[in-house]
Design goal:
Helix content: 10-25%
Distance between the termini: 38 Å
Number of strands: 9
Radius of gyration: 22 Å
Number of helices: 11
Shape: globular
Strand content: 15-25%
Amino acid sequence: MSGTGETNTAHSTAENDTKGDAAPVPSRRALLGWGGAGLALGAAAAGGAVAAVRGGESAGPAADGGAAVPFHGAHQAGIATPVQDRLHFAAFDVTTDDRAELVQLLKDWTRAAERMTAGHAVGDGAYGGLAEAPPDDTGEALGLRPSRLTLTVGFGPGLFQHGTGRADRFRLAARRPAALVDLPHFPGDNLDPARGGGDLCVQACADDPQVAVHAIRNLARIGFGKVAVRWSQLGFGKTSSTTPGAQTPRNLFGFKDGTSNIAVDETAALDTYVWAGGGKGEPGWITGGSYLVARRISMRIESWDRTPLQEQEDVFGRDKGEGAAVGKAREHDKPNLAAMLPTSHVRLAHPDAHHGVRMLRRGYSFTDGTDGLGRLDAGLFFLAYQRDVRDAFIPVQRSLARSDALNEYIQHVGSAVFAIPPGVRDTGDWWGRALFT
């Protein structure tokens, strides 16, 4: 379980017209409604035109105050951002084969994300508009604060597919980064195809779970007919912190998780280990982006809860109270890996065991009812951002899968990898623009 207790951790004219991209995208409801066929076109012809969606203007704010994380920047928010308390992560299959439709969807998603992260409703909002058309916003976030909502988009390998029996439907195969590799099968994996993969992903993090769910719901609604949700995951209890000096969170096994995680102010480490660009086989469009590995890791809670404390601490290589490594007094004392059992999790996952390579962790705990056998379906939804999956996640996970004592209590059941494009720089930009232009 990579880092459970330790962090290593020739195109269309319209798409190439960057001037045209800078103009605000009109409300889709003015034509069809955000989520499907509507009557707005006829109403607009009769004088009931709907206002454009603008990232900096509110047509009825969903909140009057509260913390908001800036949406625009060189990097996407939700990576080197202080970790929020809640998660709703969704992976999508792209159901259209029309490149122009996909581009328009990414533009529409960007405009909606600008508004939601600022605490505003999508488009004209959830009420007060045309009675003959579905509302632009689903409404469940009305009155709620922005809650530090961040939305982070990624592109999966399926978006770039080309080869025997596979059409290059979006003409992107030649632009697939070398680092966007298909993850190998690791010993012990029991992956459910229904819980992995995806052409697109959206990571919604917020301090209010309803705000995060609202964001994913509205993006899915906007994408109706072009994308379909492949799988999704709710998360609580962040299992890693990116905030300097903050208390290290604990996972469902009760141990501190992510002691060596990269902090948001470690700019040199972020440049070295997280932000992509400039590497071999790296196209220019990924510069300023990153690569995300998402793994759904099932924890055998009941077995763990019957394990003696000393054995638990030996498994991790840290004490359960302070989080100090074997033979050390404090959590952040430099660990002596040789003093740990060869099978301890920290010894196998620590950056010192992997030439200093690190990953930025943003994992969350989850509980999804029972497994049908009277046991909790619970575990860790592992999220790790890195400059190159081949140098970070893959070698670390190979080491863990081979000999980590923690494997007795966990199993990887879902897996996905995504290329994360750079940030949206201003209101004329949109998610993935450099990839498609």
